[in-house]
Amino acid sequence: MVLRARTANLERTYTAAEFEELAEFNERYELIEGRLVEKPMPKYEHGYISRLLLRAYDRFDMEEKIGVMLAEVSVRVRDNYTPTPDLSFWTTERKPARKISIAPTPNLAIEIQSEGQAVKDLYAKASEYLRAGVELVWVIEPAKTLVTVFRQGQDNPTIVQSDGELDGYELIPGFKLKVADLFD
């Protein structure tokens, strides 16, 4: 077994550029308020929900005319805030270059709550995404079979229960997905 030496000091703060140079950048870390935060390893249900969302979008926009949805891409929100949403969507006009390490802020960020992960932390991320200009954020809570939807310009999030459906609104016109389909 090969153990890799850590190069980062977990107590100090980093910029996005410094984070990108660390060995930890290629591991399961996010830069949150300048600090390295280990992202929980997703379990099967988490991965399955992610796959369902990707497949639903791919079926809806097979040729990526509206945009592109990707899993686990680090995005630059601020110079000291580089999270890795579980899924991110960029419109065609804002589609990132393929060779970059940290993508620009997405149009849609999707966070799926992992086992042991506090939903308040995901809501805090949603607020940061909105402050950075993300138009739409979905926070998926598998244990409660619901999705909390945050929209730019909306004062309070909307909770969509398992009998409701997700909507792409103006961002992904015509995209709809029954929430129950994520949890069946």
Low-confidence parts lasting 5 or more residues at pLDDT below 50? Answer: 1-5
Order of strands across the main sheet: 3-5-7-8-9-10
Task: Give the domain tally.
Answer: 1
Q: Would you tell me the overall average pLDDT? A: 90
Under CATH, the topology can be stated as tt1808, chain A
Helix-strand category: alpha+beta
How much is the radius of gyration in Å? 16 Å
Number of helices: 4
Shape: globular
* Span between termini: 39 Å
Query: What is the CATH first-level class name?
Result: Alpha Beta
The biggest sheet amounts to: 6 strands, mixed
Write the layout of secondary structure elements.
Layout: H1 16-21, E1 29-32, E2 35-38, H2 44-60, E3 67-71, E4 75-76, E5 87-91, E6 103-104, E7 108-112, H3 119-131, E8 136-141, E9 146-151, E10 158-160, E11 165-167, E12 176-178, H4 180-183
Parallel strand pairs: 4-6, 7-8
Antiparallel strand pairs: 1-2, 3-5, 5-7, 8-9, 9-10, 11-12
Give an account of the 3D structure.
The protein is 22% helix and 26% strand. It contains four helices and twelve strands, in the order αββαβββββαβββββα.
Summarize the structure.
The protein has helices spanning 16-21, 44-60, 119-131, 180-183, and strands at residues 29-32, 35-38, 67-71, 75-76, 87-91, 103-104, 108-112, 136-141, 146-151, 158-160, 165-167, 176-178. With 184 residues, the chain is α+β, with helices and mostly antiparallel strands.
